[in-house]
Amino acid sequence: MAGKRDPIERAADSEADLYDVSTWEPRTRIDRLSAWLYAMIAYGLHAIVLAVAVLITLSLLASPTVLVLEEPLIGIFFALSVVPAALLAGYIWYTDITTSEPLPLLVGTFVLAVLFATFAAVTNTVGGAFLQPIPVIGTILFFYLVVGPVEEAVKLLAVRVFAYRSETFDAVIDGAVYGAIAGLGFAAIENVLYITGDVGTVAPETSIFAAATGITTTRALAGPGHVIYSAIAGYYLGLAKFNPEHAGPLVVKGLLIASFVHGTYNVTVQIAPPLINALWGLGPGLSVVIYVIAFDVVIGYYLYRKISRYRQTYRAVRDDLDDHGPELTEFEPGSR
């Protein structure tokens, strides 16, 4: 990948500021922090063994499989729980103004995210046992130091080990697309496990479908967040691919942002809805819905601004790119 550049960088004027669009160098405090953190951890990371992920996934999916065999309609609730996240991931895919990504890579990223999500499940269980018993700050530490970083890392890993290596990953924005798909895969298996766990603990006199409806609604609200957070981290992974001299810090920067936002959601979603209910008397359920949607809109706008800036800059240099000849396939007929 040395020397390969994003289409915008190849055609833009040499004086154009493409920072955070298709080039990057440490400018801000978080940039420098990302570079420092990467230097600390770069040589300490170990590869995740795919076979272990498969075994853990199969063990976790045993109960959902039994439940669906006993109550086949529960499978519909599993599917419904990911509809909002799937729609959002589809929108992010649509915003890719360059060439469309191959279906095998999209499916492969989804499957890898499902597999790697099981590592997060195990890590969260262990980390929660240590941190959550700590009075007052234990749960906050758990969300910021374990849940956010671990879940965002495994989603990004699903992109890094497969799609990232492909020649069709040929633009910065592709990172956001594959990140969104990874978020969708993570949300899918997480929803299945949550719904199974909730339905499995209902009292005998309680309707399984009534219980499934409630938890499915809750999980449907949570899913889009996974897509947004990992799309943000994926965007920086895209920047990393085309800025190899700063690749490590860029990946860390994306993870820092996504993890912080993720942890903030987990902390505030337990605090804000009761406050909304107390102030406006909307009821617990509606208060949760309002807060989750509002939070996703705010963070989603941050992602939208990044994608929008990329798209605008891409269009601005489109004529120059077309003048360079047929090798620039991003602008062949049919591209968005």
What does this structure look like?
With 336 residues, the protein is mostly helical. It starts with 6 loop residues before the first helix and ends in a 14-residue tail after the last helix. Helix 6 runs parallel beside helix 10 and helix 7 crosses helix 9. The protein has 14 helices and no strands. It has one domain (26-317). The chain has helices at residues 7-11, 29-41, 50-60, 62-70, 74-80, 83-94, 103-131, 138-160, 173-199, 208-241, 247-268, 272-280, 284-316, 318-322. The longest helix is centred in the last third of the chain and has 34 residues, at 208-241.
Short structural summary:
With 336 residues, the protein is mainly α.
Encode the helix/strand succession as letters.
HHHHHHHHHHHHHH
- Per DSSP, the total helix count is 14
Radius of gyration: 21 Å
Mean pLDDT: 89
Number of domains: 1
* Residue share in β-strands: under 5%
Secondary structure category: mainly alpha
Report, as a whole number of angstroms, the end-to-end distance: 25 Å
Low-confidence stretches: 326-336
| Total number of beta strands | 0
State the major sheet: none
Anisotropy-based shape = globular
Helix amount: over 70%
